[in-house]
Amino acid sequence: MADRPEPARAARTAVLGPNQYGKAETRVLKVTRDGAVHHVRDLNVSVALSGDMDEAHYSGSNAHVLPTDTAKNTVYAFAREHGIDSPEAFAVRLARHFTDSREAIRRARVRVEEYAWERIDVSSPARHSFARRGRETRVAQVTRDGEGFEVLGGLTDLVVMNTTDSEFRGYAKDAYTTLQEDGDRILATEVSARWRYGWTGAAGAEPPAWDASYEQAVRHLLTAFADTYSHSLQQTLYAMGARVVEHRPEIEEIRFSLPNKHHFRVDLESFGLTNDAADGAVYFAADRPYGLIEATVLRPGADARIPDDTTTR
Amino acid sequence: MADRPEPARAARTAVLGPNQYGKAETRVLKVTRDGAVHHVRDLNVSVALSGDMDEAHYSGSNAHVLPTDTAKNTVYAFAREHGIDSPEAFAVRLARHFTDSREAIRRARVRVEEYAWERIDVSSPARHSFARRGRETRVAQVTRDGEGFEVLGGLTDLVVMNTTDSEFRGYAKDAYTTLQEDGDRILATEVSARWRYGWTGAAGAEPPAWDASYEQAVRHLLTAFADTYSHSLQQTLYAMGARVVEHRPEIEEIRFSLPNKHHFRVDLESFGLTNDAADGAVYFAADRPYGLIEATVLRPGADARIPDDTTTR
Amino acid sequence: MADRPEPARAARTAVLGPNQYGKAETRVLKVTRDGAVHHVRDLNVSVALSGDMDEAHYSGSNAHVLPTDTAKNTVYAFAREHGIDSPEAFAVRLARHFTDSREAIRRARVRVEEYAWERIDVSSPARHSFARRGRETRVAQVTRDGEGFEVLGGLTDLVVMNTTDSEFRGYAKDAYTTLQEDGDRILATEVSARWRYGWTGAAGAEPPAWDASYEQAVRHLLTAFADTYSHSLQQTLYAMGARVVEHRPEIEEIRFSLPNKHHFRVDLESFGLTNDAADGAVYFAADRPYGLIEATVLRPGADARIPDDTTTR
Amino acid sequence: MADRPEPARAARTAVLGPNQYGKAETRVLKVTRDGAVHHVRDLNVSVALSGDMDEAHYSGSNAHVLPTDTAKNTVYAFAREHGIDSPEAFAVRLARHFTDSREAIRRARVRVEEYAWERIDVSSPARHSFARRGRETRVAQVTRDGEGFEVLGGLTDLVVMNTTDSEFRGYAKDAYTTLQEDGDRILATEVSARWRYGWTGAAGAEPPAWDASYEQAVRHLLTAFADTYSHSLQQTLYAMGARVVEHRPEIEEIRFSLPNKHHFRVDLESFGLTNDAADGAVYFAADRPYGLIEATVLRPGADARIPDDTTTR
């Protein structure tokens, strides 16, 4: 490094702004054996660290740079030492470790995806066979900045559909509007949601029961999706969010990204066929373009802190 | 066309070989209403036709070319007129139609993917809310060539795992072998399978109950995967295939493509940690490269007719 | 709607936060004919609108909801009426239209991807044959909020590699560090970048020459990538950003997301083979996990306004 | 193994059919240094072996099973020992090695994908900076069965488009035909091709210059695509294949899979706009469904040996 003099700071024509670095997508499977009954947790862990990293960028000094390879090793070692109770608890432990262990690291963000496995039904008492469930992917994000934690739970890839009780009418029209009103349409979407927990790691505050909270949040949003007579995907989104916030006091806000997975009723008139919804219709499932509805629903008084693109990543 | 003279056949320096054309990936959803209880079948249908198509290629004459757009329309119209009983029955109907309706079309191959939906549990008696199941994708392929049918059932994307009862030892070694033997490893794979039915549409022959046959075939291959103490993925593959062939007389052969989804036990010794399988280990789920095991299992006396790449598409 | 009374606002147990909606991924190709010489612009356009949308969410009133289908129609009609000069100019035009035309719409964000085509070399003077270039994807994002515009340019999917002049040494170490220092490694990444233009649509301010600016920004970041002797990907990132900011006065800040596409030198010692970098080595191109380096580089005095996840979408 | 008696062969209710196994997707980058000028070859190599593997499936004996991990090691060691002259030559060398080295292995099939890199233009004489080209992916497949070789070259992902000189008229019509004839449409496709070389490794027969042959084959098929006034994608396919076969004596047959990447002219009449092709039209680039045209073109007298699904994998 000696022969690469750092430009005097005054002379800089460009300066460093917000930055973070880390190891993304460390895939870790933890098996726990309870005699012949095995349990698994299957995670994809992404760690992002920030802090005193100016010189790494300006002069190429790596003195403060803990290698991303070390973040990977830490994920594996922690899975073995402490097990994986839940994505949220595991991410809290990792985020605390990184910010506590090195002065140069002031902020850690840990993102986790969890893949669910269900047991394959067998007659023997052994329980070590699994099929990947494949419905939604559970996600969590824990950020530690200074002392406090921010914990997001959530999910992606949950495709849901109502085959009736959905209409779209009475909308605004302009010179480019050709859409026909529809009193009985299919409503389908692929739910991506992130919810923020009130827990911030304050002394004496008990963390939520993360797994139970996840299950109940999913149950509530599915129930609201199914039970709501929908005038629009916006209205359904609000109903889903409101039901979660109302029933889960540990959750302060929830943000959704809901692509409208359009199913268009096919026009079969040319072939002498009707195709009415009431009668059991045939639909074309379209790929692109698609409507995309995004919104946050909050407990009154809570702050909206989940940024825009968090749910569309 | 008049001003584009066809080269005399004798002069041809290149000739047409095997060919087919059609519409791929027509996405059709059929809803059936039984009062407030709705049922759905959600398919992706690909039609490939062949026959007397030489002039289409040589001179650009489209006289024998039924547009692919027409194949798409036919899929939608048939779904409305006849409903969708099962992927196999729907594909049989389409293949028969194309080969019967036009002399120039001598062979039709219809491939179908089916996406499964499960009901969202609600308290109301209405039943029109669904979540896409997301585990495996069911596939079917029906080929009609002349009078007979060939029907393949199958599936893709079924990820399964045994967390013990798998070893890999006693293998051949050469100068490039560094792999260590393992007496207790994870066995995980993503099952892609195609099975061929004995039914060929012969007069008087009753077709199988397609949906029931599919469910039972999946049940048997899963059971064999779970119950087999595995010395290799090859052995497990054979056990899965044999069990299907033994229990399902309507199935003549089954071909698998089984990628070995490697889960490597992480070496944690540097951190003063053991990581034994018996003790509940931590694994790295690798992406690439991966072992890939492919084989057909047959009823004795049956012909192996499912080609190589059918299961790796 | 009459029979669905809106809950009194006071009684709400959940409230609406930030929200937007629109049509995503409208795929539009515009051909321009200049005699026998054709030109193409091939875009993927995503429109997101926000404003007075509370009732759409709370009560299902669609009175203020311009259908997303209308946004799609507008994209097509504008492409025909006004042509597509550049992704940025087209997005500016659309964003202005949506916010100017309806009082309820206060903010419009238009995201564009552009796919580049190169001409197929032929001997004839006709120029209507193209091959999709496939290197990077150009992106743009225009936001209009009130009167001002914010314009981001950028790109994704640009994979680059230096086969030497890269080292990683002198880094911090802790109990979980096992990585060996490397004085001659491969540095490869897939560049995702977004840069913010100073232009905000103020009266009298001439917009940049968008296409030329894009080309030059790409040229500068590529040159900096190639010319920098790298002590880390962080340092290379800064060099890339600084060069763009220094040479392009129209650009205020640039944010990168740079995954470290690890190429590990294979250990071939067991086979009696050396594998030194200096000697022409063999590398394993790894998929996951990967280091991920993200940072903003700014013109001194400029604000860092490009959020975190913009570059990792 | 002792305690797992093999069922007597006579008793078998299911038998093993065609099978192969190996390591898929070994990602290898080879750098060659010629002073400060570096060259790279970047491959994805998949090896599939077959032979005397019955017992591996029936009884779980691995005595004849060379681990797939060894195939991976061999790829890396050969890249270092022998370099990578071309995908075809490298695959020939590997296939020969596997079949020659072990009696139990009777057939080896090696599939290779190659990713092209172009140099980043810099002013310095150093030449070690590259950008991944990203247009097409080159592919090769070498099979050795007994003594002879079969070599396929080819490519995938090559997206091409003609913005005029394409029509579709005079086609067959049935009750489900609604398509309108079009005298000036866009013709776009994503070329997947595999061609078979006449070279089989016979004594004294010189192999083709693989890299030059690849480049010329691509040039010819692109030229034919661009120069053909198209009455259908079938006709264009034949023209592309015929031109390759006519100009490249080393190539016996070529098979294409050409999805019709539909670009539909948008109907803008409702907005008072024309949208004629002659005038510079706006098109909607559709995703699904799509026409799919597959055919082989042969040198007269050659056999058609490339199977169906080879080009659609």
UniProtKB/TrEMBL annotation, chains A, B, C, D:
Q: Which Gene3D superfamilies match?
A: Urate Oxidase
Q: Which family does it belong to?
A: Belongs to the uricase family.
Query: What role is this protein assigned?
Result: Catalyzes the oxidation of uric acid to 5-hydroxyisourate, which is further processed to form (S)-allantoin.
Pathway it acts in? Purine metabolism; urate degradation; (S)-allantoin from urate: step 1/3
Alphabetically sorted, this entry's keywords are: Oxidoreductase, Purine metabolism
What reaction is this protein's catalytic activity?
urate + O2 + H2O = 5-hydroxyisourate + H2O2
Tell whether Oxidoreductase is among the UniProt keywords: yes
- Known EC number: 1.7.3.3
Q: Which gene encodes it?
A: pucL
- What name does UniProt use for this protein? Uricase
Q: Does the keyword Oxidoreductase apply?
A: yes
Q: Which InterPro entries match?
A: Uricase (IPR002042)
